[in-house]
Write a structure and sequence with these properties.
heterodimer, A: about 350 residues, alpha+beta, about 50% helix, B: about 190 residues, alpha/beta
Chain lengths: ~350, ~190
Amino acid sequence: VSAVIPMGPFHPALEEPYKIEVTCEGELITDAAISVGFNFRGVEWLAERKTYTQDIALLERICGICSNVHTMTFCRAIEQLAGIEVPERAQYIRVVMAETERLHSHLLWAGVACHLIGFETLFMTCFSLREQVMDVLEGISGNRVNYAMNRPGGVSRDLEGPAMVLAAVRAVRDATARQLIPVLTADRTVRARCAGVGLLTREQAIVYGAVGPLARASGVAQDIRTSQPYEAYDRLSFEVPTRTEGDVFARVVVRALEILQSCDLIEQAVEQMPAGEIAGEPFQNDVPEGEACVRIEAPRGELLYYVVSDGGETPARVRVRTPTFANMPTARVMAVGQTLPDLGLIQASVDPCYSCTDR
Amino acid sequence: MTTTSAEGLLHELDPRLGFERDAGGCWVRDGLIDVRAMAGLMVRNGIRLMTITARPWPEGGFRLIYHWDTGPEVLNVCTTVTGGLPTIADLVPGADWAEREIHDYYDLEFRGRGATPTLMLLESDPPGLFTRTADTGRDTDPARTARSAADAAGADAPEADAPEAVPQVTVPHVTVPHVTVPQEGEPK
């Protein structure tokens, strides 16, 4: 006998509203339907009614975790349209901010995943490390959430405490390597709970348009930082971690390794950062006619902005395709054939953000 | 995989297609594209659909842009439509949400879909939210309209008029009672 079980919009795994309705034969999931839009705010509509400068503040509020990448991508689109050069020092500061934000996002996700697995001690460890990362973000920008760091042509604040950043990042890397990685990659309980669960093949990842750590855990070696480098990434040395298993365990491992990688990237960027200006002339909403398509590697994967200017002070079109918008439809593929108790973990393994998805 | 370069893919799709390049990638801006032939070609070559963007087109109808990831660059294939166009969601499952969202915002029909349920809107909402509200909220932002007015005045006259005087508002005087803050170590 089939049973249809609705989960959400408020549900046990995640803090944000969305709904998944699964059809089950006993405990086995035979189909799943996903509903989103509970957080719809019409940000694209609003962005076409505000000036470019006002839009920076608006778009920063799409997400409470990856707010920095939204303004960075939008500013890059403006810079592309208006032919604005970004000083080299500002490019490095943007990398430091982007990678610190990735650390914050991945540690938060790792904490939630540990909580769902039932590993409460490690959940506490992850959130304690994340707190140190939040201190770094606050130390650089003055803010813990919406950093207001990006502006067309550069950044708003200089990196004034490189020693503080380096000390914090080294502490996070040591603790991650010593405490987090061994448990997440070798612990029998974690492996038993995650290995073979929520499979997404490489072919499925491509046709569903999956991005970021989700795609990389299915063998798709796609990372915009290396395939189409931006800011200072082409001057930094790093490799993209990938796995081929395509299960929840592979996603855990990829994100855990990316925490270490982000620490290395921040260290390289701070040490190599040249002296100089952090921004050019103040931006006056002067953007010539044209269209720009810009993408960057956000913590959850590729973030795409398409911006059209008709020469006015307000953009004619702002399209925002967030990573979770691309990733979440794969949850249906991953859930079918699995048992109901694994559903929460499968959903969380996408690292979804509905605030981003719904915009 | 047969080929993954943007030129190779476009040549295989239609050798007559023109394209140009900028920092945003490779753009096909003219012509009416057979979107299903394009989707089939991309799937055969393992090319990922990033998303579909729609925007109202000044000459009427809509411009749709299919953004494909060829690896080192984005291939943006534009096509202009009026009534609707065929779906590619059966060929590229990743197009499903993009097509539903475009239907939500612009009431554009993707032919061949069994149904087009709302994605962002409520089930009871009619589609075409952005089209219905196209003229709403464009002149209500004081900061923007003030600058637009100043710009317009500057363009009309060789010397811009002085901005209209802001009416003075008299704020009633309020006496704040003096409060002594105890110093550290002092008894409170």
